[in-house]
Design goal:
This protein is mostly helical and 495 residues long. It has one domain. It is 68% helix and 1% strand. The protein contains 21 helices and 2 strands. Strands 1-2 form a two-stranded antiparallel sheet. It starts with a helix and ends in a 10-residue tail after the last helix. 46% of the residues are buried.
Length: 495
């Protein structure tokens, strides 16, 4: 019973992630509504009542520590502010833009309270509360309610959850499935539980980086020693072979490719190259014995397996997608040049700078700014998205809403960077390595931390040409990755 109570918060955070990822990739609000709000409430309750207690603490002392930490954390106030900004439009609903056939002009009915946050469709706008409130609640719960070991276990569980989703996707391909769960068709194009392949690609690319960092940390710690690896896996975390982690590494890599998302294929390849160089250079420079030979050999074996999986999973459809990935195509997509949605989003933002036009308000207001030819294209496609998270959030949430979102992200990233800098300085000062690697600051960091930043950066790059942060399954893992990374920062041990 004590074990269950000690880990009940960890379990509920994981259930929240599983709910988003397995319920059609989080893109079915009708299915999410009965589940996600309750899970979010349970996570909050467990944070306040059953946080993980240190060995020297009682449960009451742990609660007191958590409550004090929450009150000092700017993230909780930003999360409350964002919640208010997202809730306000429900009381300020505007009419949908209407086209007057006689005057050939658009009429935009104003909201009851002009100048304040509004939305056009409350049901569509409510989806944003389903994205951000659970994600920020989970981040606060993991940051303050989980101890270091709990954060490490959570990141490990996230990678295995993604591996299970990858297996589902491969089972679909093998059986020729016409729907996510072999029932009535729900999406025209899907992979695993994701009805939009680019969401799947971003999800698996992020988890590939996380799983690779976990494997390298464990493998380098076993062959070179924790000091040389820069990791601090305690003995109780090392009960199983590190090479079991190759399963989520390989599955998530293959799933990112099999999603046939061009952005994911490109970014997964970049992540692969960056982490390969980091691992090989770190293994060679940091070793003080013959252990580096084994580790380098293991890394080359993994790289070979990944290369073979890429080759095997290269059917005609994949080759077709690869042929379209050119420097000019990438530049045009990222820059928005020649892509009318980028121009339209900027125009909407200029008209509604402060608070935007509400969640999913872009398709409604885009019609006003588009040319007749562009409107015809949009209607044929069945909707409109900017395919740029920054521009679409600016158009829909304005400078205020987007600014609060950005500040939430910074409150996750900046403390982690500060802790990492302090750790590298402390480790350098202790002379923990006889022959330190160069650059010292990089290889004093735990590989998991490096992997988190590489994977998170890939997601941000993906967001410049698509909408990964509008997938709650991607969003919640992205924020949790930064929180969990703090659990791997090593304690400085002097010689």
């Amino acid at each position: 019973m004590n074990f269950f109570l000690r880990n009940i918060l960890l379990l509920h955070i994981l259930l929240l992630v599983v709910g988003f990822s397995w319920i059609h990739g989080g893109t079915r609000p009708d299915l999410l509504m009965p589940v996600i709000p309750w899970l979010t409430a349970f996570v909050l309750e467990c944070l306040l009542v059953f946080p993980q207690a240190k060995s020297s603490e009682t449960l009451a002392e742990a609660r007191s520590r958590v409550w004090r930490a929450l009150l000092r954390d700017p993230l909780i106030y930003l999360a409350l502010l964002l919640t208010v900004l997202l809730a306000a439009p429900f009381f300020n609903v505007a009419g949908e833009p209407q086209f007057n056939v006689l005057t050939k002009a658009w009429r935009i009915p104003p909201p009851p309270y002009p100048g304040l946050p509004f939305c056009v469709n409350p049901a569509e706008h409510a989806v944003l509360l389903l994205w951000f409130v659970p994600a920020l609640t989970a981040a606060l719960a993991a940051r303050h309610g989980l101890l270091k070991k709990g954060k490490r276990l959570l990141l490990l569980a996230l990678c295995w959850n993604a591996a299970a989703l990858a297996l589902l996707g491969f089972a679909q391909l093998a059986t020729g499935a016409t729907s996510v769960y072999w029932g009535e068709q729900t999406f025209a194009h899907f992979f695993s539980t994701f009805g939009y392949p680019n969401f799947a690609g971003a999800f698996f690319t992020l988890h590939f980086a996380l799983a690779a960092g976990l494997w390298f940390s464990r493998a380098s710690g076993e062959l070179l020693g924790p000091a040389a690896a820069g990791a601090s896996w305690p003995e109780e975390d090392g009960a199983f072979s590190p090479h079991w982690l190759l399963i989520p590494v390989l599955l998530n890599f293959a799933a990112a490719i099999a999603s046939l998302s061009r952005a994911a294929i490109l970014l997964c390849g970049v992540v692969f190259l960056v982490l390969s160089v980091y691992m090989l250079a770190g293994a060679w420079q940091k070793s003080e014995s013959g252990g580096h030979v084994k580790l380098v050999g293991a890394i080359f074996a993994v790289l070979l397996l990944l290369g073979l999986s890429f080759t095997i999973l290269a059917p005609k459809a994949l080759k077709t997608e690869l042929a379209t990935i050119t420097p000019s195509a990438v530049f045009e997509r990222v820059s928005g040049r020649g892509y009318y949605h980028a121009r339209v989003a900027r125009a909407i933002f200029k008209e509604h700078r402060l608070f935007g036009v509400g969640g999913w308000g872009y398709p409604h207001f885009a019609m006003v700014t588009m040319t007749p030819e562009e409107r015809k294209v949009m209607q044929i496609q069945g909707g409109a998205n900017v395919h740029n998270d920054t521009l679409q959030f600016l158009a829909e949430q304005g400078a205020v809403g987007f600014g609060v979102m950005a500040l939430c992200a910074l409150t996750l990233i900046v403390p982690l960077v500060v802790q990492a800098v302090r750790t590298t300085r402390a480790l350098s000062a202790t002379g923990i390595d006889a022959t330190p690697a160069k650059p010292v600051w990089l290889y004093h960091l735990p590989p998991e931390l490096v992997a988190v930043f590489v994977g998170a950066t890939a997601t941000v790059c993906h967001s410049l040409g698509d909408l990964p942060f509008r997938s709650p399954a991607v969003l919640i893992v992205w924020v949790l990755a930064f929180v969990c990374a703090a659990g791997f920062l090593p304690a400085v041990r002097r010689k």
